[in-house]
Every structure is written in C-alpha cells, then in structure tokens.
Amino acid sequence: MAKISVTDKVTYPRELVYRTFRDDLDDLDAYLPDIESITTKDREDIDDNTTKVVRVWKAKDEEIPKLARKFIKPEMLQWTDTAVWHKDEWTCDWDMEVGFLSDAITAKGTNRYIDKGDEVEIIIDGTLEVDARQIPGVPGMLAGRVGKAVEDFVVKMITPNLKDVNRGMEKYLAENE
Q1: Model's pTM, two decimal places?
Q2: Residue 95: which domain range?
Q3: Are 126 and 108 in contact (CB under 8 A)?
Q4: Rounded to an integer, what distance in angstroms lies between the CA atom of residue 16 and that of residue 46?
Q5: What is the rounded CA–CA span in Å between residue 66 and residue 72?
Q6: Domain of 48: which CATH number?
C-alpha cells in the first residue's frame, strides 16, 4: 500500500473553495490540462452537513504514445470518484474506482480544508493499493513486486496532478467570481 500525501494552498477563502469543489467540480474540466471531462452521476444531500457526490472523470488520451493506443481503450482512461462531503468538519472522504481494474486498484482518503484567512490549505491524505494478482497477465510470483512498483509509480504520477486541480480551481474562480 502506498500513501498519498499532498498539502497545498488555494488563494481563495475556504467556504468558496469547499463549495466549488463540492458543487461545481464538473465546470473545472476546462481548466485541467489532462482532463477531458468531469460528470456528476449522482448527488444526495444526506443531511444539512453531509452531501454524497459520485462523479466520473475522463482523462484526455492525447498523452498516450501512438504505439500504445491500440492497447489502451477509452474506458481505461476514466475513473469513478465517490465523495462524501462533511461541511461541519470541512472534510471530504473519497474513494476512487478505476472501471477496468476495479478488483485490482483501491484508492481512498480524506481531504481537509483548513481556513487560512484569504486562502485555504488543502491536505489530502489517502492510500493506493494495487493487487497485481487481479491484473491480467501478471504472474502470481511477481504480483507483490509488480503491485508495489505500480503503486509507487501511480502516486508519483498523480501527486502533481492533485496540485494541478487546485491551480485549475484558482483559474476557474478568477474567471467566475
């Protein structure tokens, strides 16, 4: 299991950033260079402080090398994010499901939104676990090492992307305030 740990700041007040991430994330795709679309599939206001939102994220396929495009199908570039927002705690518990490898990849965590006056500190703590035994073609004897290598690679790859979402948020808010 690999740890996901990111601390970053967004230069807007916590209430605005939290509400925008919870309610308007679909509108941010235009501000995220690697994302083709973000689509809300379900939303449930559980009580006055708790909202559950299910979104499907789809990455752009432009970065895939031409040689790999015949192996990497469009459905492999999307994932489902289930987020439970707790306004009374300024947190969001999330888990992610990769559609084509839902049995092999588990990712979950919590985002915390800390008030810093005119900005908000966003702390993302989570875990990513890859069960390589569930990936077709991976020999059982190598599954542990392959899983660990994939976990480390994915965490290293997504960490800057998590900060890019915050930069996208800042651009979105600058244009839509």
Answers
A1: 0.86
A2: 2-176
A3: yes
A4: 21
A5: 10
A6: 3.30.530.20
Residue 3, judged by CB atoms within 10 A of its CB (0-12, 13-18, 19+), counts as: exposed
The sign of the torsion formed by the CA atoms of 130, 37, 32, 70 equals positive
Q: What residues pair up with 98 in beta bridges, in sequence order?
A: 79
**What dihedral do alpha carbons 77, 82, 86, 92 form, nearest 10°?**
-30
Residue 176 DSSP symbol: H
Q: What is the pLDDT of residue 114?
A: 98
> Residues 8-65: pLDDT tens digits?
999 999 999 999 999 999 999 999 988 889 999 999 999 999 999 999 998 877 655 5
To which residue do tokens 């402080």 refer?
Answer: 49
Domain count, the chain: 1
